[in-house]
Amino acid sequence: MVTTAPSSAAGERVAFNKLLWVGPLAIIASIVANLIIQQIAAAVLRPDPAFLPLTPPPTIAFTFFGVLGAVLVYALVGRFARQPIALFRRIALVVLLISFIPDILMLITGFNPGTTPANVAALMLMHVVAWAISVRLLTTMARA
């Protein structure tokens, strides 16, 4: 009897039934983690009250929509790509890097009152945390 090795894409399928609970889990875990970072950053950095990006409402909203976007992209990539896990990881990394652009521009332009390098670093850390949680949960727990 001859057996063939599984293709490299064998473990590369998205479990859409699991995505129904892993997606919300990724969103909630990312929001909780980012709120913890936001609270620590606010206590340590004492940002200018006019610096709204480092307050809970924007933290919750941007994290929610960012991770929801990741879940939707994961589902789409899972539906159409041959190797969805690897492709999603690459897309997520590129999107993470792109997500730093508004923060860097905020620092360069001083668009928001109270913008400091430390405040922007805290925001960027929240991007990384949401990225790490979403990519890890989606690609491990919502995998067929």
Provide a compact summary of the structure.
The chain is mainly α.
Regions with little confidence, pLDDT below 50 for 5+ residues = 1-8
SS content category: mainly alpha
- What's the rounded overall pLDDT mean? 92
Order of helices and strands: HHHH
How many beta-strand runs? 0
Most strands sheet: none
Q: Count of DSSP helices?
A: 4
Distance between the termini: 27 Å
Could you say how many structural domains there are in total? 1
* SS strand fraction: under 5%
Work out the radius of gyration.
Answer: 18 Å
Helix content: over 70%
Mass-distribution shape: elongated
Structure explained in plain terms:
This protein is mostly helical. It has one domain (16-141). The protein contains four helices and no strands. The protein has helices at 16-45, 56-80, 84-109, 117-141.
Topology readout:
Layout: H1 16-45, H2 56-80, H3 84-109, H4 117-141
Features of this protein?
144 residues; mainly alpha; 4 helices; disordered N terminus
